Amino acid sequence: MRYSITIFIFLLIFSGATSASPVVNIKTSYYSVSGSTANELRKSLNANSPVRQSGKRYDAYTAWMVHWHFNWNKRQGQCYITHASSTVDVRFTMPRWTNRNQANGKLKSKWDKYYTALTAHENGHKRFGINAAREIERRIQKMPPSATCTLLEQKANALGKKVLEKYIYREKAYDKTTRHGMANGASFP
Questions:
Q1: 87 with 23: CB under 8 angstroms?
Q2: Omega prior to 189 cis, within 30 of 0
Q3: Which of 45, 51, 170, 189 is in the most buried spot, having the most CB atoms within 10 Å?
Q4: CB 41 within 8 A of CB 97
Q5: pLDDT tens-digit profile of 16-42?
């Protein structure tokens, strides 16, 4: 009997400690590339990629946007958060090799290695958005009560924006450190 009471108390204490789990919506857009040599593929990537930043062209891109929502209640002259949730919209832009079946095995292998590294790098960008959403949910949920609901809403939105700024900064450092994935093999040929 003592064992079941301990479990009940454990569950009661930790039932509110669930981790934030944002809804993640992913959409991938592809642009076509073709070639039967590594140089032809590189030229096709350069010519067809729609991804441009600061005057430079890149092979892939990941954009994410975090939306957060929260509910509050008023009790004893205080307004407090009752629930927080978030959604992350992720959009990948990736190349698609259209005439792959006409290439030799060595070129396919080189492309596969590159594409695996490129995908891993872009998934790294996705994780920044998801982690930002998790932190926003968690921190808004733990906010102390405010005297008014308007003030609570302002504080929650300011907190969300501050968290986003932190993850945007980290994401820029990620690209700088990895040289946009090239340091991890996302370079072709």
A1: yes
A2: yes
A3: 45
A4: yes
A5: 444 579 999 999 999 999 999 999 999
Give me 78's structure tokens: 């205080």
CA separation for the pair 189, 187 (Å, rounded): 6
Residue range 106-129, pLDDT digits in tens: 999 999 999 999 999 999 999 999
Other beta carbons within 10 angstroms of residue 47's beta carbon come to 9
- Tell the residue number behind the tokens 């301990």, with chain if given: 6
Q: Are 62 and 91 in contact (CB under 8 A)?
A: yes
| Residue 144 exposure: Cα atoms within 13 Å on the Cβ side | 2
Q: What are the φ and ψ backbone dihedral angles of 77, each rounded to 5 degrees?
A: 75, 10
Strands (E), 42-161: 51-53, 56-58, 61-75, 78-97
